[in-house]
Known about the structure:
- Keywords: DNA-binding, Transcription, Transcription regulation.
- It comes from Butyricicoccus porcorum.
- This protein has ten helices and nine strands.
- The protein has helices at about 95-105, 125-135, 140-155, 170-185, 190-200, 205-215, 220-235, 240-245, 255-265, 270-275; strands spanning about 20-30, 35, 40-45, 50-55, 60, 65-70, 75-80, 85-95, 115.
- The relative contact order is 0.10.
Amino acid sequence: xxxxxxxFCESTGFAEVTLSxxxxxxxxxxxxxxxxxxxxxVLTYFTGDSGSIKLGSSVHSVEAGMxxxxxxxxxxxxxxxxxxxxxAMWAELSGEALxxxxxxxxxxxxxxxxxxTVPADQSELVAAFTRLTDPEAQYGPLRATxxxxxxxxxxxxxxxxxxxxxxxxxxxxYVDKSIRFIKAKYPQDISVEDVAEYCGLNxxxxxxxxxxxxxxxxxxxxxxxxxxxxxxxxxxxxxxxxTIARSVGYPNQLHFSRAFHKVFGIPPRExxxxxxxx
Length: 278
């Protein structure tokens, strides 16, 4: 018996995060970190004794277990308390998706500090930061970027009260969410009910939103998308019709042929004869 499991990953935009550099910092009270301007966003996790950090004109007290974000263009000065040593792990990041992740964590230039809800010895965030900044590790860019993305994921999961992103156009949001689901799941035997359940909406309500936005029903979009992919397979792939049917969500070849004929007016085999390339 064959068994296939499938988990849908709505990852739109999260790949747009770039890791530039990363490392660790340690400083004594008599040897403070010289003031500097940062061009990109620096995510910092403090691990040592208490101290202070000046971000622009604002001074903040910091201690072990705190996350501090140094936003671009800020003048930064970090100092340990008298007789203590301050230390931190840091990662310099950029990219269009970064600001939305930080906002969901409640981190903004006006509120650049938070304390995660999970103790350091149990924190996946700390573990990811430790692996990334390990001075003995020699990571390639792909592995390092993967750790940086893991770091951001842990940040959201260990944020005291993560903020939900504001949605300017709710109709467009649900339509786009439906389309992403259909494009990812069309090879499976999904229905309009599955799409509505994924969006958390009533089928009829989603159908109205979808028709108003696209001019077609959710079912029509699903069929047209499947047929578009099927045409590409018929045109280029040397595969039996039954295989193509299964590949676009039709376990039954007869049902596929009927749906294809309804859209294009001819059977899939005839369409293939007229349009076959190679």
